[in-house]
Structures are given as C-alpha cells and as structure tokens.
C-alpha cells in the first residue's frame, strides 16, 4: 500500500460510457479529466483506453471469501484478486466462515487479511446471530466498533427465521446505522430443498424450494422494518413475487433495498436437468418468468443493486451427486459481463446505471461511500481513483480452469460473454492492467 | 442402446422392442434349462447405494440367466457420509472393466451423472434413482398390462408388437415421492395409454400440470368415471405419515378410507380390470388383503415379469449395441 505513486493517463476512456476523454490518476485521486489526446503524459504511464468504458470501481455487497476455514476453496487474497480481475475495488465478505464472523476478533482478522492482500477493500459482514444459529444476537456493537467498522450484518446461508430475533436485530443496528441483510428462506418450507419447485423439479424428482419460502420472509421483514422504522436489505432476491413485494414496500416508503445476483439475471432452472451440481445454488435458479421479472425490477429501480453471491467451492464439494453437492457458484469475474449482456446490450440499463447498481448503491447500502476509503463515488476530479476500465466490445469464452478465483465452479463454463475488464485501480494503484492482475507492476498470473 | 436412464427417453418403437424382447426372454424361462449363453464373458455390476433386495435379486437373476458375470457392489453412504464418492466408485468400476452398471441410488440423477460425467464408459441401467425414475419397473408394469389386457384378453398371445393404445390406467398413492409413478406416466403415455393419477393433494407434485396425464383427488370418482382397465397402487412410506417433514395426511386410517384399494372398491372395477403394485405392499394401508390376494391382482406375476424385462434391457444394452448403433435408448 505504500508503493510510490505512479501517475496514470487513461487515454481515450469513456467515463460512464460517454464521450472519450483522457483521465489522469495521481496521488490516489482523479487529478484531471480532459479532452481525449490532450493530457500531459510526461512521467506518466499511459493506458490506451480507446473505446473502453470507465466505471467507478465495482463494490460487491455479497462475497464469500471462505477464509478463515475453507482456504482450500478460496482465501481473502485469492478472492480479492478475482474481485480485482472482475473490476471490483471493494467486497463485503460474508460471515459464514469457520469460525463464524460473529465477534470483533474474526471480523478484524478478515479485515486485516484484506488490507495485507491489497487487491480490494474488504469489508467484513458480521453475523446477526451467534454461530449463525438463529438463537441469540451476536455482539453487533463490538463488530461495529472494531477496526473492521462493520455496518452490514447477515446470517447469509441461513435465514434469521425467528420473527422476534429479526425484529430485535433490525432495531439494534439502528444505533450505528447498520443494516440487516436477510437471506430470505423460510426454513420449514425448504427442508431438504434442492432446486426451484415447479415444472422441472416435478419432472426430474428433486425436492422443491418454493418461491413462497422466499416471498413470505421478505413480506414479513418489510413489515417488520416498517413497524420499527429500520432499514432492511434483501439478499439475492430471485422470484417475480419478491420483486412485487419489494416494489409495494418501496411505494409505502419502507426503507428497504434489494439485490439480485448475476446468475438470477440470466440462468433458469432448466439447467438442473443436466444434474450438474455446478447449477445448484441457493436461492435456486428460477424460471424464465422470474428472470424477466428481476431484470425488470433492476431496470425500474425496485432492485437496487447487483451483488455476486460469489460462492467458491472445492471440486470435491461439486463433483458428486446433486443431492450431496454444496450450494453456490462463483461470480466475481463474470458479474459485469452478465450485467452487460442482460441489461446493457438489451438497452435496459445505461453504463451510468451500471455504475449505480454495481458501485454507488452497494457502497451507500454498506456505508462505505464516505471517508478516506470511500467507494462508489462519481467519476469526477478530486474523487478517489477507484476505477475500472471495461472493453464492452470484447467477447470471451469463460473457462473455470483459468479464472483467478481458486475454485472452478462457474456456471458460465464454455459460455461466451461480452465485455472484458482491462484495468482496475484501487486509490490510483493498478490492481489489474491489460486484463491481468498485477502486484507492484508485475503480472502474477 | 447405450444406457437406460429414463422412460422419458424411450420412443414408442424402442419401448415396444423392449417389451417384445422381454416376451422372448420370458418364453425361454419356461424351459428346463433357463440359462442363455448371450452375455457369456461380460460383466454386470449391481451398484446399490440404497438397499433393495428385491430389485437387486431381480437384476442378478436376469444377468445370470444371460450367463453374465455378476458383481454386487453395495456402496452404503455417499460423499456426504464420508464414504467413497460416486466418482471414485465409478472410476473403480471402470478400472475393473465393467460392461454394464446397474445402479440404484438415493440421489435423483446419479445414474445420469454416471452415464454422462465421463468417469465410466460402461452402459448404465437405472434401477431407481431418488424420486426420479425407475424405468425397468415401468417396463415390467407395461409388460404385465400388455400381456393381460392386450394379449390374453385380445387373444393375441403375449401381445407382441402391440402398444397400449386405448387402455386406461389409474396410478394411486404417493405420486410426489414416487419414481415408479414418474417412470410409468412417461412410458404409458408413450405407449398410448391414458393415465389418471389419484392422490391426496399433498402427495401430488407442484408442476404436475405439464405431465401427460390427468390428476384426481378422488379414488371412488376415478373408479366410477374413468373406468380404469388397470389400477396401480403405490407404496406409502411410513415416514410420510408422522408430523415434522411428514404429515402429508392426517392418519393411516384416513388414507385407507379415501385412497386404499379395499374389497368394496375392488368389486366396482370392470370385470377385466387388473390390480398392480410394485411391492413391497403395506397390507391394510394402500391395499387390503382381499385386493392383494384377489384373482385380479397380478402382483406376483409382476415379479416374474421383472426378470424377463431386465433380461431384455441387459440384452439390448450389452449384446444389442452392435445392431442398434446410435440408438441411445
């Protein structure tokens, strides 16, 4: 972090997809934005960014980095390197590690591992309940006051199902402007659940995970949030009904935000017919009608953000029977491409909207949009130089084996996606150049 | 014919070929010497991740009557319970040179993975996977139905060459958890029969509306109005009754009252109608002793036909592969 500062000139970049410009990064901030070809390049490293879209560094509100506990699947270092490769400059690390991130000690450990790795800011998410067991509140205040400065609390992987406990959590975090990010899954309705309940599950004989199990919890939680005047964040919303409930809640003025994952924007439960556990994820892939509803929700602002739910798993946890396999898929390195394919190339979002749903809004929800390490800021002179350059014209075929993440469980293996992150800058320092992660100016791949 | 994974993959011609081949196999079984030399030197592995003595013995008998070498591999547990993984088991069988693998697994889709993951190049025969499919059960049911309702009744011998067009079959019981029901709906539809599923609404899967069959919640009404030629009773697992994850119906008595095949309902069947059950039966629950032991019941014959059908499947899978290249049943 204490490297001598290189000045970069991003030549011909298109801030938020607008007109080409030269963007100068110096001393960790955006020093100058000037007409293309006019910036002074003396002593600067020039990055040819012609045709490339310049976005604020992406911020993921929902990442599983697996450390501590499952370093075989991912570490803070490997996961944040993958994040940088995907254009991210900050990630929120979910709490379902081993040990669980339910104390100040664990969240500080994860925070420091992130600082040491230096690929992206790591903001640990604190567990809502001790051990994610849903029985009593973890020491939320201690985590908020720790060096990790936790503002997002979640038992993700499990639902805070007890309505009283959920109410208390929503109330308690108001003291430090925190937010509870709910994994909405009614546990009794989803016992043994393997995939979306519907036509495909009926046919292929896998136990169903009904949409109502998600929608019932979201409906309950928005009403609880209204009642106690708290803010609520809904993780990985996946059904058309959930979109409607959140839309209704927002129309009532309830302080709720919602996220959708890239995979729920593009993949459907038909993929389960292959019995390939790569497509086993929680919440499960839904129907084409649900995919259309979440795209519409993202386009009209009902859904605030896209978050990856990047969930790396070791090969042995996926190379087995569907019923025995772990839930989850990787996403950091494909998120922006999926958003481009489903939302930008279809004309439903502009690049400026992409900056909102993948950077500004998640940073605001996570309360990391202010202070010396502010993220999700505008692309403007004087702002921190957290930036990503994407070539929207590039096309690439995804290969799980050559991704930066330590795990190979990408659902897009063999699939061609648009867009390629060419460079990522964290406070003016390049973490990715020429599409490859770099440390102190050297490629590490 | 490389694999037999699901009845949904079978064309009508393929299904009829399987039934006709089974008829040929059955004919050999009345001889004094029942053994055929067809699969001499070939190895069949019975890979059972779930106990099923009946099905395993049926496949073992079928393979031995065709002179195959049979290895029984009881792989209890799974990668979940830290047993050997499905993949390692498959690699082991591959290394041992298995020519066909008969697999019974608690996980829906496991035979599909064995056939397609590239771990193994043997033919895979699904002997029941989770709540998905049980193709040889459906084939032996269809064989039994054809023999009685097309062959014997129609005076067409064993019904060779015929499909089941125009026949009506009621399948009664726990459809939700039943691989037998799924396998039968697909196969009976392919063979031209009309199917009505009868079950309490709790035991019908969400999504059933796309299946090629009708659904009824009322057995008496179905018997009176649908007038089935065959009634297939499904086994009801004891664990479906208790509370907790069970609780699919209030009590065994209530289940029997509305969905059990008892003497009264038996008497309302058409004269020619037959009663099937995949076994093992819960006498007094889904089927009464009167029904199970009546001369309409073909339940014991189903067992015998099971051997013939499995001989046919193994034969077409292993010996028939040269003559039916690319015919991926």
UniProtKB/TrEMBL annotation, chain B:
Catalysed reactions, semicolon-separated: carbamoyl phosphate + L-aspartate = N-carbamoyl-L-aspartate + phosphate + H(+)
EC number of the protein: 2.1.3.2
Name of one Pfam family that matches: OTCace_N
Record keyword Manganese present: no
Molecular function, one GO term: aspartate carbamoyltransferase activity
Function in brief: Catalyzes the condensation of carbamoyl phosphate and aspartate to form carbamoyl aspartate and inorganic phosphate, the committed step in the de novo pyrimidine nucleotide biosynthesis pathway.
HAMAP family: Asp_carb_tr
Protein name: Aspartate carbamoyltransferase
């Amino acid at each position: 972090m204490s490297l001598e500062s290189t000045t970069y000139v991003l030549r011909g970049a298109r801030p938020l997809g607008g007109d080409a410009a030269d963007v100068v990064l110096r001393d960790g901030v955006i020093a100058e934005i000037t007409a293309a070809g006019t910036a002074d390049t003396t002593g600067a490293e020039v990055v040819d960014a012609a045709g490339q879209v310049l976005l604020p560094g992406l911020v993921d509100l929902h990442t599983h980095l697996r450390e501590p506990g499952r370093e075989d699947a991912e570490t803070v270092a490997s996961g944040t390197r993958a994040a940088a490769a995907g254009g991210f400059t900050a990630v929120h690390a979910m709490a379902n590690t081993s040990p669980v991130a339910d104390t100040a000690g664990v969240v500080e450990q994860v925070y420091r591992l992130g600082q040491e790795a230096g690929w992206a800011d790591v903001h640990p998410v604190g567990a809502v309940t001790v051990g994610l067991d849903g029985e009593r509140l973890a020491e939320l205040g201690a985590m908020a006051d720790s060096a990790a400065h936790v503002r997002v609390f979640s038992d993700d992987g499990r639902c805070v199902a007890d309505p009283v406990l959920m109410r208390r959590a929503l109330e308690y975090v108001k003291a430090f402007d925190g937010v509870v990010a709910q994994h909405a899954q009614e546990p009794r309705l989803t016992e043994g659940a393997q995939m979306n309940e519907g036509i495909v599950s009926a046919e292929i004989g896998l136990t169903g995970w009904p949409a109502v199990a998600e929608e019932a919890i979201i409906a309950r939680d928005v009403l609880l949030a209204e009642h106690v005047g708290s803010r609520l964040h809904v993780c990985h919303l996946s059904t058309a009904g959930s979109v409607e409930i959140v839309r209704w809640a927002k129309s009532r003025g309830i302080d709720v935000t919602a996220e959708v994952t890239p995979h729920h924007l593009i993949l459907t439960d038909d993929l389960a017919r292959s019995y390939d556990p790569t497509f086993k994820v929680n919440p499960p892939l839904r129907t084409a009608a649900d995919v259309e509803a979440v795209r519409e929700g993202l386009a009209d602002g009902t859904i605030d953000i896209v978050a990856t739910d990047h969930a790396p798993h070791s090969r042995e946890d996926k190379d087995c029977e569907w019923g025995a396999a772990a839930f989850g898929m990787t996403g950091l390195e494909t998120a922006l491409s999926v958003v481009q394919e489903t939302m930008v190339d279809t004309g439903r979002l502009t690049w400026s909207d992409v900056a909102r749903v993948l950077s500004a809004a998640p940073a605001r929800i996570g309360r990391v949009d202010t202070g010396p390490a502010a993220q999700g800021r505008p692309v403007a002179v004087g702002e921190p130089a957290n930036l990503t350059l994407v070539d929207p014209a590039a096309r690439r075929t995804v290969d799980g084996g050559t991704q930066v993440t330590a795990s190979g469980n990408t659902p897009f293996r063999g699939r061609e996606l648009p867009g390629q992150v060419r460079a990522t800058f964290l406070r003016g320092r390049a973490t990715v150049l020429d599409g490859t992660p770099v440390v102190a100016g050297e490629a590490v791949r | 014919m490389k694999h037999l994974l699901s009845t949904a993959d079978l064309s009508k011609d393929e299904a009829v070929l399987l039934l006709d081949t089974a008829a040929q196999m059955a004919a050999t079984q009345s001889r004094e010497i029942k053994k055929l030399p067809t699969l001499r030197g070939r190895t069949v592995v019975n890979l059972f991740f779930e106990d099923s003595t009946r099905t395993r013995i049926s496949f073992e008998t079928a393979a031995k009557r065709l002179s195959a070498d049979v290895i029984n591999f009881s792989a209890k547990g799974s990668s979940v319970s830290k047993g050997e993984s499905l993949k390692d088991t498959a690699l082991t069988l591959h290394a041992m040179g298995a020519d066909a693998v008969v697999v019974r697994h608690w996980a829906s889709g496991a035979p599909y993975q064995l056939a397609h993951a590239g771990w193994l190049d043997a033919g895979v025969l699904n002997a029941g996977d989770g709540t998905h499919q049980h193709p040889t059960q459906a084939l032996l049911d269809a064989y039994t139905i054809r023999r009685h309702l097309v062959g014997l009744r129609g005076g067409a011998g064993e019904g060779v060459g015929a499909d089941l067009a125009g026949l009506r079959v009621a399948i009664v019981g726990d459809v939700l958890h039943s691989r037998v029901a799924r396998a039968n709906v697909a196969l009976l539809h392919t063979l031209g029969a009309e199917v009505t599923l009868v079950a309490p609404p709790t035991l019908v899967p969400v999504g059933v509306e796309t299946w090629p069959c009708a659904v009824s919640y009322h057995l008496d009404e179905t018997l009176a109005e649908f007038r089935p030629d065959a009634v297939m009773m499904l086994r009801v697992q004891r664990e479906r009754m208790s509370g907790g994850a069970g609780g699919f119906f209030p009590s065994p008595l209530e289940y029997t009252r509305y969905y059990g095949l008892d003497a009264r309902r038996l008497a309302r069947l058409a004269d020619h109608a037959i009663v099937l059950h995949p076994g093992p039966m819960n006498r007094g629950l889904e089927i009464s002793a009167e029904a199970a032991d009546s001369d309409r019941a073909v339940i014991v014959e189903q067992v015998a036909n099971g051997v013939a059908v499995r001989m046919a499947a193994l034969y077409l899978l292993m010996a028939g592969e040269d003559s039916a290249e690319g015919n991926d049943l």
